[in-house]
Amino acid sequence: MKRFLLLILSVSFSTLLMGQDILDGAYKKDIRDGGRDRLIQPYHHVREADVMWSTKIWREIDLREKMNQVFYYPVKPIDDRKSLIDVLMDAIQLGEITAYGNAIFDDEWNFPMSDGDVEMIGIVGPKTDTTWMWDDEIEAEVMQINENEFDRTSVKKYHIKEEWYFDKQRSVMDVRIIGICPVQEQFDDDNNFLGFTPLFWVYYPQARSVLSKAEVFNRRKNDAARMTYDDIFHKRFFNSFITKESNNKDRHISTYKAGLDALLEAERIKDEIFNLEHDLWEY
Fold this sequence. Notes:
Elements: H1 2-20, E1 51-62, H2 84-94, E2 99-100, H3 115-120, E3 127-135, E4 140-148, E5 155-167, E6 172-187, E7 193-198, E8 201-203, H4 204-211, E9 215-216, E10 227-228, H5 229-234, E11 241-245, H6 260-279
Antiparallel strand pairs: 1-5, 1-11, 2-8, 3-4, 5-6, 6-7, 6-8, 9-10
């Protein structure tokens, strides 16, 4: 009888504790206020005098590849996770980061987008398009303004700009991502594919403060060891291919190579960087 009473009391006490603090899981995260106290992992300090060699590389990340799907999902935000385009656009809307690319797609960050430019591509509110329609009553063309909600799931690629350099102080070849550019799928009214259109550029060092607080799904299926978008980029947990390297003509690979030849040229550039690091060592 005494054991029975103790069992009832223990169950009642446990129920009372659970009622006081309902958790969506077995434990409560230590990160408070939605991860706002998470610190950015600092880069190593690099002096200009210590950089023996450097080059800029442009890459393309295709979200249709399985390894890159972490940037695309979830399609709709859930409690603690959002897709990369949701994170970037929400931060631009709140003024935490700046979008660049006024009239041109600026990967040198010279032209911050105005509020009108931001509204034009649908970051804030519906996307506005203008078309000219023939009005039979006045027998003239009139401008018609159409408002369409921007479909964030139509962003299927990202362009990234990065700099590879050899630091003689640490004797390592290292890389820093400089910028990110979302790329949108385009279709006509008959649902015919038209191609991909870059939307805007984001300066990555500025965006790190936002990306370091945005958690992503751990592909090893371990919710207790979540990573952030900044971790994914910093640790190079994505698949990509090179589309351009620094050159005197400032041209992309696609302007002088096509198809399989373009992929082979991208591999040649990657191997060139790899071999350069090894050639600096003496065995």
